[in-house]
Design a protein that fits this description.
Blueprint (H helix, E strand, L loop, with lengths): L12 H8 L3 E6 L5 H15 L4 E6 L2 H18 L15 E3 L5 E6 L14 E4 L7 H7 L9 E6 L7 H5 L5 E6 L1 H7 L4 H15 L2 H8 L8 E2 L3 H7 E3 L10 E7 L7 E10 L4 E11 L3 H15 L3 E4 L5 H8 L9 E3 L18 H14 L3 E4 L2 H9 L1 E4 L6 E4 L4 H9 L2 H4 L12
Parallel strand pairs: 1-6, 1-7, 2-4, 2-5, 5-6, 9-15, 10-13, 12-15, 13-14
Antiparallel strand pairs: 3-4, 8-16, 10-11, 11-12, 16-17
Helix pairs in contact: 2-3, 6-7, 10-11, 12-14
C-alpha cells in the first residue's frame, strides 16, 4: 500500500482515526488543528491505492477548494512523482490525473450545485461545508448513486439546522468534533504556548457562541445567517455586460485592502430612479495593492463609468485611499467616507446607539427583501453574503454582526447606501401662457 509521508512532529490520535475511516464522515473542527493537512494525506493515499476512482473537492468558491487540492498535489509530487501523468494530461489548476487512472478535481458549487453536478464520482469532499448552499447538497449527492461513493464534510460548526447538521445524527456518518483547546494542550512546545495564547486572545475578543463555533466545534442556535440561501438565490441573477446607459447614476463602493493576504473589493452599481432599483454591473476582488494602486484603479473606473458617488471605507488602510481620492479634482466632490465604526445621526442630529456598519448591512438586507436590488451571480458575492451572521450579546445586549469573508459585501453595502442618502434631483419646467 502506498502512503505519503507525514511531515509534522506528531500525528494526533484523532488524525490517526480520520485516516482509518472507511465511508462517510463529518470533520467538524476548531481552527488551527491541522484538519486540511490530515485530509490532504487521506485523499492522496486514497487516490494512490484506488485505481480508476474519480473524486472531487467542492466548495462555495474555487479558492477554498484549491487550497486543499494543492496540498494533495504537493504530497504526491513529493513522495510519488512518477505516479502523476504528464504531457497532455499534466496537472492543471483544477484537475490532475494519476497513471493508475484516478482523478482529483475541484470545482465551485455555484448557487445550487450546478457547477459540479455533471460528474459521476466515487467520492465528494465538501470543503468549508458551512458556506455551501443547502440546495447544492441535494444536487451533488446523486452523483454518488451509481458508485456508492463516500461523502466527507469538512469545516467549522455552524447552525443547529440544515443538511450537515442533520447528518450529525445519521448512523451512516462517522463524526469528529475537534476542539482547538484540547489540540493545543497536546502540541509540543513552542506550538503549545503559541496556540494557547492565541486562543486566550480569541476568547476575549469573541462572544461565547462565536468562540464555541470557531474553536470548540459546537453549533449554536444563537448565531443566525443574515442573508438566507433562498434570498441569496433570488437576488444573485445579474450578469456583466459592460453596457453604460446614459442619464443613469453609477455608484462605486470601495473596501480597500493593504499589502499581504487580506483582500479588498470594488463594487459598481447602476441606479434606476424610476424603479428605485439598484443593479450591480461590476465587482472586482483586489489583493496586494498599495493604497495608491487602489486609488488609480478607482479613478480608471471613474473614467469609464463616470460615478455619481464613490463610497469608501476610510478605516485603517482605507484612510489613505479616501485621502488620495479627495485630493483629486476628478473625484474629490463625489467621494464620501463610510466608516464601519461611525455612529450615524438620527433625525434630531444626535448620535444613534447603532454603528454605521450594521446600518449598512441591514439596509442591504432590506433592499434584497423588497426586490430593490440585483446582484451579480458570482461565487465571491454568494460566499460573502452567506458568511454573514448575527447574534445578540448576553453581556451587552447589543447586536453583533460577524463574517468570515466580508469584502464583497463591504464594498456592496457602501455603494447601495446611496438608496438611503441619494440627492434630490431638481428640474425646472416652464409652461407657455
Amino acid at each position: 500500500m502506498l502512503k505519503t509521508k507525514w511531515l509534522y512532529p506528531q500525528m494526533d490520535e484523532w488524525q490517526k482515526a480520520v485516516l482509518a475511516v472507511i465511508g462517510n464522515m463529518i470533520l467538524m473542527c476548531g481552527r488551527q488543528v491541522g484538519k486540511s493537512e490530515i485530509v490532504a494525506k487521506k485523499i492522496a493515499d486514497y487516490l494512490l491505492n484506488n485505481p480508476k476512482h474519480h473524486i472531487m473537492i467542492v466548495s462555495g468558491v474555487e479558492r477554498q477548494a484549491s487550497g486543499l487540492y494543492n496540498k494533495v498535489l504537493r504530497l504526491i509530487e513529493k513522495d510519488f512523482p512518477s505516479q502523476l501523468k504528464h504531457g497532455r494530461d499534466k496537472p492543471l489548476r483544477t484537475v490532475f490525473k494519476l497513471k493508475n487512472g484516478s482523478v482529483l478535481r475541484t470545482e465551485p458549487v455555484g448557487l445550487d450545485g450546478s457547477g459540479a453536478r455533471q460528474h459521476t464520482l466515487n467520492g465528494v469532499i465538501f470543503e468549508e461545508m458551512q458556506l455551501i448552499p443547502e440546495e447544492a447538497f441535494t444536487a451533488i449527492t446523486p452523483m454518488l448513486f451509481t458508485t456508492g461513493g463516500f461523502m466527507w464534510f469538512l469545516g467549522t460548526a455552524w447552525s443547529t439546522e440544515g443538511y450537515v447538521y442533520d447528518r450529525l445524527s445519521d448512523p451512516n456518518f462517522g463524526v469528529f468534533r475537534i476542539n482547538s483547546e484540547q489540540v493545543a494542550e497536546i502540541r509540543p512546545e513552542p506550538s503549545r504556548t503559541i496556540l494557547i495564547n492565541h486562543l486566550a486572545g480569541e476568547r476575549e475578543r469573541m462572544t461565547e457562541a462565536q468562540y464555541a463555533q470557531e474553536y470548540l466545534a459546537i453549533p449554536s442556535s444563537n448565531v443566525r445567517q443574515i442573508f438566507n440561501d433562498k434570498l441569496i438565490k433570488k437576488i444573485l441573477t445579474g450578469k456583466r455586460d459592460g453596457t453604460i446607459i446614459k442619464d443613469k447614476d453609477y455608484l462605486c463602493g470601495v473596501d480597500p485592502a493593504g499589502l499581504g493576504e487580506d483582500e479588498g473589493s470594488i463594487s459598481l452599481f447602476r441606479y434606476d430612479e424610476y424603479k428605485e432599483r439598484l443593479v450591480q454591473v461590476e465587482h472586482e476582488v483586489t489583493s496586494q495593492l498599495y493604497t495608491t494602486e487602489t486609488t488609480d484603479r478607482v479613478i480608471a473606473l471613474d473614467n469609464r463609468w463616470d460615478f455619481h458617488k464613490i463610497y469608501v471605507d476610510d478605516g485603517g488602510v482605507g484612510f489613505g485611499v479616501f485621502s488620495e481620492l479627495i485630493k483629486e479634482d476628478q473625484t474629490k466632490f463625489k467621494t464620501i467616507a463610510l466608516n464601519n465604526s461611525a455612529r450615524p445621526l438620527d433625525w434630531k442630529g444626535d448620535r444613534t446607539k447603532s454603528i454605521l456598519g450594521n446600518e449598512m448591512i441591514f439596509n442591504l438586507l432590506g433592499l434584497m427583501e423588497r426586490g430593490k436590488i440585483e446582484l451579480l451571480n458570482c461565487a465571491e458575492m454568494r460566499e460573502s453574503l452567506k458568511s454573514y451572521k448575527f447574534e445578540y450579546s448576553k453581556k451587552t445586549k447589543e447586536l453583533l454582526v460577524t463574517s468570515t469573508y466580508n469584502h464583497p459585501v463591504q464594498s456592496t453595502m457602501r455603494a447601495v447606501w446611496y438608496a438611503q442618502s441619494k440627492d434630490l434631483k431638481l428640474s425646472v419646467h416652464s409652461i407657455k401662457v
